[in-house]
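Researcher: Let's continue the batch. This sequence belongs to ATP-dependent helicase, and it's 723 residues. Same format as the previous ones, please.
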Amino acid sequence: MSSAFEKLARPVQKWVRSKGWQELRQIQVDGIHAIRDSEADLIVSASTAGGKTEAVFLPLISQVLDAPSQSDGFDLVYIGPLKALITDQALRLGDICRQTDLPVYPWHGDVSGSVKARATKAPKGVLLITPESLEALFVRRGLDIPRLFGAVRAIVIDELHSVIDSERGVQMRSLLTRLEISLKRPIRRVGLSATLGDMKMASAYLRPDNAEAVKLIKAKGGEAELLLQVRGYVSGGEDETAPSSTDAVSEHLFKYLRGSDNLVFAGARQWVEIYADRLRNLCDNAHLPQEFYPHHASLAREHRDFVEKRLKNANLPTTVVCTSTLELGIDIGDVACVAQVGAPFSVAALRQRLGRSGRREGQPAILRQYAVEARLDSASSFVDQLRLGLIRAIAMIELLLEGWCEPPKPEALHLSTLVHQILSVIAERGGAQANRLYRILCKEGPFRQVKTELFLDVLRAMGRPEAGLIEQSSDGLLLLGPAGERIVEHYSFYAVFMTPEEFRLVADGKELGTLPVDNILTPGMMLIFSGRRWVVLDIYDLEKVILVKPATAGVPPLFGGDPGMIHDRVIKKMFEVLQGAFEPSYMDQTSLQLLREARASFARWGFSKTSIAELGAGAYVLATRSGTVKTTTLAMALGAFGFQCTQHDGFLLVESGDAEQTLDQALTGLAHAVIPDLFAHAPNLIFEKYHPFLTPELLKLDALSMRIDSECLQQLCSGISGK
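Model: Same format as before. Here are the structure tokens for ATP-dependent helicase:
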């Protein structure tokens, strides 16, 4: 064994020998030296089953055994995003600690009260906990935090890539800061992660005040095998005897997924139900046991619990057709394959979903990507001609293979999560002064972009009678108000994230269905739904209703206007695919033919040389070559001038509508910094859990920090218009 082995405590060495290991992996050698030779924060990056857990816990447990703490409290804390992951890691660490007197305590919603009572009565050893359960400890046992965590030497954050700068990630950073403030000392932070797109940003997430000192250890090679295929399908084919594209996709899923555990991400809830129904019928027609089930937020909790428990049962093959509900935070165990019908909205989401597959050593990760495109005819939309759904899917996969994923946006305000943490700190302490809240959360915590006056505006919004979240005593102490008490007392408070809600689309008093909305819509914008084109009349954020009426006649694209936040880098890759000549080996013949058609259409429209194409009758296509934020901002600006806009990936369909000037005049004005009021048409600005408690002005500021880029307009319009 190497010199790293000699740095391990004797019981840990004995455990290593019992496993029959001839040598430690290089990442474990590096981790042992890094942890035993310094007190620095650390990020260990390797693929699933790459040895990350042992790389940090073998030396950390050795430290605890060689120099026991004289203080009360857990010695090590592991924070994991999934209950299943905590259960798995508790078994692994319990095995390592079996020959020691260090207990291992898993802690999440499914752990019995007796286990938690033992842990809190005499805290010691290793605590494995979810962010939500850690939040609950602060709220319920705030005064007990120093005793419970007084001996903590290190906090290990697993799946770091899945939380960076998300609402949940900001919550976790806040909890880490609050823990250090309670203990009056820093605690070593150790991040475990799959490949990260930007290690510098990961370091800044882990230790914002001293990112340069964070040590990075990255495994070389050893990546899990990835099996990948993109399959193309054409909707509306001329052969009436052939199965529909939906039936063809369902039959392929049935043939290759039956008999194992799988996840099928099908997009909106209506498609989840459609595919689940097709697959159920295929089981019935073949006289086979049922093993295909839907899962989305509109289904009853009892049904979702049943599906999740069945998915974890190794004796019952189960394939779940779902929205994003099974992407984050739910215990589902391992799956054999991840299928994606239609393109995802982010590489991070694709990585997160794919991470559900191939978690066990020697098991490949499998991704089946299904791309459904419309049959082309003389009336086909430019969107269908460019095959944007397929192109986005290819771009996402290429960026995934390159190891890139969306970076965090450091200037984001995260005001919804700030509201949550204000309530949490007040509940933890039974009350708090405004200046203390600001120091804990903004000055030292993750909300660094929130300055004093803005923080006070947030407090005022929370204290409004119609909000009722907080109130102030005569001595200035902030307390929970009636609404705040009700919210904090409910178990749902501990989770800061929520599943993206869907808006009901209503036309002339009739409900058309529901649509997930994750980016900004304003009255006057156009969208595609249920095979028709609609113009938005009004938006009711709190009621989750969008009023629409039929829009300009014409054949709407099969892929078009789907809400979702697409990064600039994804759009850039899409244009590289459209302008390129390479044909990926993971594509089947149908998808390759669709790709060739897209490239021919791109050249025919002239987008290699220009960014504006005229459709006639006052309609134009703008190639923004930009992601959702910039394209949305341009749509809002043109909407303020009276134009009607429909967004697509990297493109904007613009129609004259009520505009009093030409498109060229509007673009020229924007290029010369003549910027209208982007919020004049009352866009929807409520996207996160605590947004409803903020004022319109605060919602605008939050949107400007994350979803709108008013500073991009001048350069963007100069590039499009050439002026």
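Researcher: Any comment?
Model: The longest helix spans residues 167-183.
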